[in-house]
């Protein structure tokens, strides 16, 4: 297949820059502790300095992969498929989720919300970032809001974001891994004073699994 054909298929969402895919235990948020098949899509320009998958940022380093192959692999392992990145909404997710739905699979996405929402989703984890804020539309449909707490000002940011989401959205505060020992006590105190929030931990890292 020639380069121009590949680019065209990527633009249409028929191929996606696949970084990795793996079957594991969901480590964060509402579905933590449950089995899920993760599909990590390359490409992200949000640029969080503490990102633990910076190798996902450059989409060109990850091979364009036919979504039919992604769907077939996912269907072998789990009923729940989590699309993550990078920032998956840089790409059109409609063809991929359509394929997953033909297999009666549950579609979850983890996104900063910085790009317009595409695809059909059973669960939307919105994890907003200060340097590239979400589009307004995603606040209305977010299933959970997960704010990463790196410093004290992130509590202010969290409240700003919580004011925008729908009333059914579940609110999580999660310490950034490298500063967890410093931030966990602050998060615990904050949640006890503001019980609308729930503590989220990266339990997969404690379990030493992907």
The rough form would be described as globular
Fourth-tier CATH superfamily name: Aldolase class I
Uncertain residue ranges: none
Q: Give helix and strand order, one letter per element, not per position.
A: HEEEHEHEEHEHEHEH
Number of strands: 9
N-to-C CA distance = 33 Å
**What do we call the CATH topology?**
TIM Barrel
| Rg from Cα | 17 Å
Report the CATH architecture.
Alpha-Beta Barrel
Binned, the helix content reads: 25-40%
- Overall average pLDDT: 96
Structural class by sheet pairing and helices:
alpha/beta
Quaternary state of this entry equals single chain
Percent in strands? 15-25%
Strand order of the largest sheet: 3-1-2-4-5-6-7-8-9
Instruction: Output the CATH class name.
Output: Alpha Beta
User: How would you characterize the largest beta sheet?
Assistant: 9 strands, mixed
Number of individual domains: 1
Keywords:
alpha/beta; TIM Barrel
Please, could you describe this protein's structure?
It is a single chain. 28% of the residues lie in helices and 24% in strands. With 210 residues, the chain is an alpha/beta fold. It has a single domain (15-206), classed as Alpha-Beta Barrel (TIM Barrel), CATH 3.20.20.70. The protein has a nine-stranded mixed beta sheet. Helix 2 packs parallel to helix 3 (94-102).
